[in-house]
């Protein structure tokens, strides 16, 4: 499969001088369609920064980002916004579902914003919700759903349409382990359908769903492993193996 996301020597520095924070240092990372990559590392190691830069929500201080062959820095504001809407799906820990819109309206929204007629957008949204076994929750408002259901709706919204890249920041963090497994299974299924998925997680069990785990330490890519048969293989990265 071709590369969907390429980070080339990406660095991000906040501020300057002695108080500068080097959130990322010369990160090289390529994620292909069909691949699920987990990003792990201690608090403050740069995981969220990596995700927001990969999602074009923030610009690197140096280095380049290529998404489906485009460097967002070379695109006009409008084209960058289109790339963001059409090619990239985001799942955040706090879901970000809009209150006052039903589940299906939330999922259809990105398509409608992009000009898909309402009826077609709702039909596509219902298809995705059905895949996530949420058909009977489609007409509910977010506050009438459980945490796990809300997270599945957020994933449905992230994958609706022809997204090539799915970025998830601690998508299982607020969930019990059963709901967390469901979310990881969905991300796995998206990857198996050809989407490039990057998921930040603290949880080695969740990372064991990935094809590859990258470890960040102090903004550097410290290690990469392929999950073994059990999650315990991820618990001691970089231990001299
Ligand atoms: N806007 C900002 N201004 C200054 N420093 C920032 C800013 N955003 C992030 N940082 C710093 O950059 C570093 C990396 O932050 P980031 O949020 O990417 O870490 P993380 O690995 O996601 O952490 P956590 O696991 O706690 O969410 C941290 O030291 C953080 O304090």
TrEMBL record:
UniProt region (Disordered), positions on chain: 222-241
Superkingdom of origin organism: Bacteria
One GO molecular-function entry: ATP binding
Domain ABC transporter: 5-238
CDD domains: ABC_MJ0796_LolCDE_FtsE
Gene3D superfamilies: P-loop containing nucleotide triphosphate hydrolases
Keywords for the protein's UniProt record, in alphabetical order: ATP-binding, Nucleotide-binding, Transport
InterPro entries membership: AAA+_ATPase, ABC_transporter-like_ATP-bd, ABC_transporter-like_CS, ABC_transpr_LolD-like, MacB-like_ATP-bd, P-loop_NTPase
Pfam families in alphabetical order: ABC_tran (PF00005)
Protein name: ABC transporter ATP-binding protein
Organism: Actinoplanes sichuanensis
């Amino acid at each position: 499969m071709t590369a969907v996301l390429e980070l080339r020597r990406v660095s991000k520095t906040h501020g300057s001088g002695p108080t500068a924070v080097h959130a990322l240092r010369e990160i090289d990372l390529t994620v292909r369609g069909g691949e699920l990559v987990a990003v792990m590392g201690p608090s403050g190691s740069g995981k969220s920064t990596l995700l927001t830069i990969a999602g074009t929500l923030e610009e690197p201080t140096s280095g380049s980002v290529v998404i489906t062959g485009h460097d967002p820095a070379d695109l006009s504001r409008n084209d960058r916004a289109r790339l963001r809407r059409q090619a990239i799906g985001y799942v955040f820990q706090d879901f970000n579902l809009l209150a006052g819109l039903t589940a299906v309206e939330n999922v259809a929204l990105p398509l409608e914003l992009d000009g898909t007629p309402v009826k077609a957008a709702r039909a596509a949204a219902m298809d995705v919700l059905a895949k996530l076994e949420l058909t009977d929750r489609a007409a509910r408002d977010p506050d009438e759903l459980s945490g796990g259901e809300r997270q599945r709706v957020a994933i449905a919204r992230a994958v609706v349409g022809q997204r090539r890249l799915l970025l998830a920041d601690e998508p299982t963090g607020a969930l019990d382990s059963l709901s967390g497994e469901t979310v990881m299974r969905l991300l796995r299924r998206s990857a198996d359908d050809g989407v490039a998925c990057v998921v930040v997680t603290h949880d080695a069990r969740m990372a064991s769903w990935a094809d590859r785990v990258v470890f960040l330490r102090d903004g550097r890519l410290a290690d990469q492993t392929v999950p073994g048969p059990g999650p315990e293989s991820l618990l001691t990265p970089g231990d001299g193996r």
